[in-house]
Amino acid sequence: MAPAIPYRTDAPVSAGTFATALLVTLCLITLLVFVLIFIRRRGWLSLPMVARNTPSQELIQLRGSRRLSMTTTAYVVSYGSHTYMIVESSRGAQAAITRIDPDQQGEGAP
Question: What are the TM regions of this chain, as residue ranges (predicted)?
């Protein structure tokens, strides 16, 4: 007696067809990469070069950072002519911002 549903024993796609499709896809990707390299070298593809620009006084600049503990980090940043210290704590997502000016440095001393 034959089974009610015959099971398929051969592959739905032959190995030759699969290899051909894989080879064509690889050739197309390689061609695309070479075309993109060619276009970029000719200058037709202009990507924004924000990172290469020199920082101006109007941008926020990171002057330094120090990890105080496992969850707390202090940053010194400058914006324009002012300098700020930002203390960030990942515990409870807290941040404290303090303005640092040259004339404030001597206030704590007697």
Answer: 18-39
- pTM of structure: 0.40
**CA 18, 21, 26, 27 torsion-angle sign:** positive
Q: Rounded to the nearest 5°, which phi and psi values hold at 25?
A: -65, -45
The residues, any chain, with a CB within 8 Å of residue 90's CB and separated by 6 or more, are 71, 72
Classify residue 74 as exposed, middle or buried by CB count within 10 Å of its CB (0-12, 13-18, 19+).
Answer: middle
Chain-centroid distance of CA 60 in Å reads 19
| Residue type (1 letter), 17 | T
Rg of the chain (C-alpha set): 31
- pLDDT tens figures, 17-60: 999 999 999 999 999 999 999 988 888 776 665 455 555 556 88
CB 74 within 8 A of CB 86: yes
- Cβ–Cβ under 8 Å, residues 47 and 53: no
